[in-house]
C-alpha cells in the first residue's frame, strides 16, 4: 500500500493541485485532499505526510505522521513536543513564500504613518480639506530590521531600493545579515540598534527568546520620531508598554499586523492607542496567486526530497521554534 | 546699483538662506527676503529676479522682472502671457525636486488600495477584527505611467524596484521613456497603454493637451481591476466620469492628491465616491528637509547660470505650459 499524503489547502488553484498530485504520484504516494478541518481530523491517522493550514489539535491524532509541512511561516503553535506522537517526525514551514506580500504590507504601513494618512483620512471623512502637515520619507531614513529572515530581508531590500540611508539588521548570530544591510547587530546590542531610528521593523518568530523582547526598556531606547512595525508575532512586543509609549507621545507611531490575542477583543486598549494602525493578521494571507504558487512549488520540491531521503527545505528545529 | 533678487521662501532653513545669500553676493546681486506675500507684492517692482511660492497676481506688478524661479513644479498658473510685463522674461520651475516625496506618496496610496487599508481602517474604527480579504501587490503588476518627467520616472523606478512586471511610459514624443520603463507609448496610443493595467499613474502638468485627457472613453479602456492615481494636476481627469466609473464598480479604486477645485468644497461628490482616497495636495509639500535642500541648490545653480548668460535649468516654454 502506498504511503498517504493528506492535504488541507483550500487556497490552491486547480493547476497547483494538479502539480502536487503529479509530484505525489511520481514519488509513490497516494494523495488525499480534504475539504474541511473536520474531514482531515477524522482521517489523519492514515497519513504519513500532511500539508496545509492545520489546527495543532490534529497532530496528536496523526499516529502515522512522519512529516508535516505547514502552509504558514510561523509554526510556534506546532512546537510543543506533547503534540507529536512520533518525536522524530519532521516539521517544515513556508518561510520564503511570504516575503513579497508581507514586505509590501510593511512598506504600506510605514509610508502611511510617515505621510500622516490616518489624519488625512479622518479629514476626508468629515469632507474637510486637511492642512499641510510635515511629512516624512523612507528616502534618507535609518531603519532597524529585527529578525533578518525572509520577511526582514525582503523588507530591508525594498527600504534600501526606496533610498533608506542606513538599514541595520538585528540577528542572533554575528555573521553579516546580508548585502542589503548597511550594518549588522547581534541581539544583545538591540538597544543600540534601535537608537535614533526612523523605523524599527519586527520580523521575529515566536520563541522563548523573542517573547517580550520589545519591552519598556527597548521602547525607551527608541527616539521619539521612531515608528514601530510588527509583522512577525505579537508576542515579541510588551503591548502595555507600547500603548503607554504611544499614548504619552514618547513614540511617534506604530503599525501592528500581529498582536496578542488574535482576534483582538472589542474592549482591548490597543484599539484606542494613539497613532496606532491595526490590520488583522492579513499581511501574508494566501489571496495572492504567486504566494500560493510559491507554496505549492515548495511542497512539490520537498515531496521529492522526502522520497529521496534528502534533507527537507525549511526544516524547523522544534526546540528553537523556527 | 546691483540687480535685486527677491525671495519669498519661508520653507528655507538658515543654512539654505545663507547658501542663497552667498550665491547672490558672489554673482553681484542684492538679495531681499520677504516675509509675507504682501511685502513681496509691495516691493516686487524693483526685483530683476524672483524666487519662491508666489501668487500669479504679483507678476503684472513686477515691472523689472527678467527671471522668476517658481518653488513649485506645476507652473500652469504663470503661463498666461498677459501676466508678464516683459515677454522675454524667463520662467523656471522646480521640477526634479519633488520626485522622491511625491513618488513615495504614490507608492503609499497604491499599496493602500491594493491592501484594502480603507476597509481595514473602517473595521478598526469599529474595534472589529476584519476578515481575510483578497490583497494585491505591486510585485508582478502592470503599470502605466502617464507623463514620464521627474514624478513619473521617480515612481516608475520605485515600482520596478518593488517587482512590477511591466512598467509602461506614456509620453508625447516617441523616444524611449528611459531605462526603468519596459515599454514606451506615445500619447496617441493612450488607450492601448492603459488597457489591462493594475495601476495607471497620472503625472501630468496642466496644459491644453492634458486637460480632460483621462475622459470617459479612456476610463472605459481600463480593466475593472485598475487603480488610478493622480499626483500631477487635477485637470487631466474628467472627474464626473471618474466618479461614475468608481461608483458603478467599473474601476477598482482611485487616489487623488490633486483635483478640481482645490480645496474641494464640502458638497463635492468626490468626497463620497466609492474606493476613492483623497489627500489634499500634500504629496509634494516642503516639509521634507531634502526637498528644500534640492530646491535651494537648484536656485543657487541657476543664479550662477543667469549671471554667466548660460541657459537656466528647468526653463519653461510658456506656450506649452511645461
Give structural notes.
2 copies of one chain form a homodimer. Chain A has 322 residues and is α/β, with parallel strands linked by helices. The first copy, chain A, has 2 domains: 4-97 and 288-307, 3-Layer(aba) Sandwich (Rossmann fold); 99-278, Rossmann fold (3-Layer(aba) Sandwich). Helices cover 30% and strands 16% of the residues of chain A. Chain A is built from 9 helices and 12 strands. In chain A, the strands form 2 sheets. Chain A has a 7-stranded parallel beta sheet with strand order 8-7-6-9-10-11-12. Chain A has a 5-stranded parallel beta sheet with strand order 2-1-3-4-5, with helices on both faces. In chain A, helix 8 links the parallel strand 10 (227-230) and strand 11 (253-256). In chain A, helix 1 (14-26) runs parallel beside helix 9 (289-307) and helix 3 crosses helix 5 (150-161). Chains A and B meet through helix 3 and helix 4 of A and helix 3 and helix 4 of B.
CATH superfamily of the largest domain in chain A: NAD(P)-binding Rossmann-like Domain
Which sequence of strands runs across the widest sheet of chain A? 8-7-6-9-10-11-12
Distance between the termini of chain A: 34 Å
Overall helicity of chain A:
25-40%
Structural class of chain A: alpha/beta
CATH topology of the largest domain in chain A: Rossmann fold
Strand content range of chain A: 15-25%
Report the principal-axis shape of chain A.
elongated
The CATH architecture term of the largest domain in chain A is 3-Layer(aba) Sandwich
Amino acid at each position: 500500500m502506498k504511503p498517504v499524503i493528506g492535504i488541507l489547502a483550500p487556497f490552491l488553484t486547480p493547476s497547483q493541485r494538479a502539480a502536487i498530485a503529479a509530484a505525489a504520484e511520481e514519488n509513490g504516494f497516494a494523495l488525499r485532499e480534504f475539504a474541511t478541518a473536520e474531514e482531515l481530523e477524522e482521517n489523519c491517522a492514515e497519513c504519513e505526510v500532511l500539508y496545509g493550514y492545520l489546527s495543532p489539535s490534529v497532530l496528536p491524532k496523526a499516529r502515522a505522521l512522519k512529516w508535516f509541512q505547514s502552509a504558514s511561516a510561523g509554526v510556534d503553535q506546532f512546537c510543543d513536543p506533547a503534540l507529536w506522537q512520533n518525536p522524530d517526525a519532521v516539521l517544515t514551514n513556508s518561510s520564503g513564500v511570504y516575503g513579497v506580500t508581507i514586505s509590501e504590507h510593511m512598506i504600506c504601513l510605514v509610508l502611511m504613518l510617515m505621510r500622516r494618512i490616518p489624519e488625512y483620512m479622518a479629514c476626508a471623512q468629515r469632507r474637510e480639506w486637511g492642512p499641510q502637515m510635515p511629512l516624512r520619507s523612507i528616502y534618507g531614513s535609518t531603519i532597524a530590521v529585527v529578525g533578518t529572515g525572509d520577511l526582514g530581508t525582503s523588507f530591508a531590500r525594498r527600504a534600501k531600493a526606496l533610498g533608506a540611508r542606513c538599514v541595520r539588521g538585528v540577528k542572533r548570530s554575528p555573521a553579516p545579515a546580508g548585502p542589503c544591510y548597511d550594518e549588522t547587530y547581534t541581539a544583545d546590542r538591540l538597544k543600540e540598534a534601535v537608537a535614533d531610528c526612523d523605523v524599527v521593523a519586527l520580523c521575529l518568530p515566536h520563541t522563548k527568546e523573542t517573547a517580550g523582547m520589545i519591552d519598556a526598556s527597548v521602547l525607551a531606547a527608541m527616539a521619539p520620531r521612531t515608528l514601530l512595525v510588527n509583522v512577525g508575532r505579537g508576542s515579541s512586543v510588551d503591548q502595555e508598554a507600547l500603548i503607554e509609549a504611544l499614548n504619552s507621545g514618547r513614540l511617534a507611531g506604530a503599525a501592528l499586523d500581529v498582536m496578542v490575542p488574535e482576534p483582538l477583543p472589542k474592549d482591548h486598549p490597543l484599539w484606542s492607542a494613539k497613532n496606532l494602525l491595526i490590520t488583522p493578521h492579513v499581511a501574508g494571507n494566501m489571496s495572492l496567486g504567486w504566494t500560493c504558487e510559491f507554496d505549492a512549488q515548495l511542497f512539490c520540491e520537498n515531496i521529492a526530497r522526502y522520497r529521496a531521503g534528502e534533507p527537507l527545505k525549511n526544516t524547523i528545529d522544534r526546540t528553537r521554534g523556527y
